Design the sequence.
């Protein structure tokens, strides 16, 4: 019975053709992805899986299912497994080299998303990045947050505008950040990049 069923499936797949096989693989991957994501959500709702891990497990399952479906599609289209493995290892090697070469930039980009998600500060807040101990830190009002830098506008003690500091975003996760909402913090120190005054002639 099983041999007849297997033979009938093979005959039907042969009639469908490569395009039909690709559609079936994509449809099966989509259905499997929905089932796995719903199962993980149910396990999280029943506290079987910690809530913190639910999102990570769902994303990991989606990546694995998508990657497997891609391999099956390539194999269906006649791509040799050896060729796929060579291309995959080459891609991973190039990606690893590029990752380590651009680690600083990628770190700042990743920390930008963490800043947006966790919100340790917001636009127009006054913050100070403490260096530790009694050393004064970088202080100013947040005026811009981009993928690489956060711009801080300094202010002097008399309220005049100072210079603009561009702080790498990954620095906020390596230092202690002091935050003031709304009004400027008291006892604002002089800007770090204040222009030196021109010497005046001595009075006689």
Sequence:
């Amino acid at each position: 019975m099983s041999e007849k069923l297997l033979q009938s499936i093979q005959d039907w797949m042969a009639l469908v053709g490569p395009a039909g096989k690709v559609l079936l693989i994509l449809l099966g991957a989509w259905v499997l992805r929905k089932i796995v994501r719903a199962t993980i959500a149910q396990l999280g709702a029943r506290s079987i899986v910690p809530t913190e891990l639910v999102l990570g497990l769902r994303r990991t399952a989606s990546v694995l299912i998508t990657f497997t479906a891609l391999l099956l599609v390539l194999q269906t289209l006649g791509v040799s497994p050896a060729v796929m493995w060579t291309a995959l290892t080459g891609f991973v090697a190039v990606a690893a080299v590029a990752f380590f070469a651009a680690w600083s930039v990628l770190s700042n980009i990743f920390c930008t998303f963490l800043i947006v998600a966790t919100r340790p500060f917001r636009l127009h807040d006054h913050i100070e990045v403490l260096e530790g101990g009694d050393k004064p830190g970088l202080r100013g009002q947040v005026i811009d947050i981009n993928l690489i830098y956060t711009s801080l506008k300094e202010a002097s003690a008399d309220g005049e505008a100072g210079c603009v500091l561009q702080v790498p975003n990954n620095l906020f996760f390596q230092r202690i950040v002091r935050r003031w909402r709304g009004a400027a913090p008291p006892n604002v120190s002089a800007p770090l990049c204040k222009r030196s005054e021109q010497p005046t002639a001595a009075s006689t």
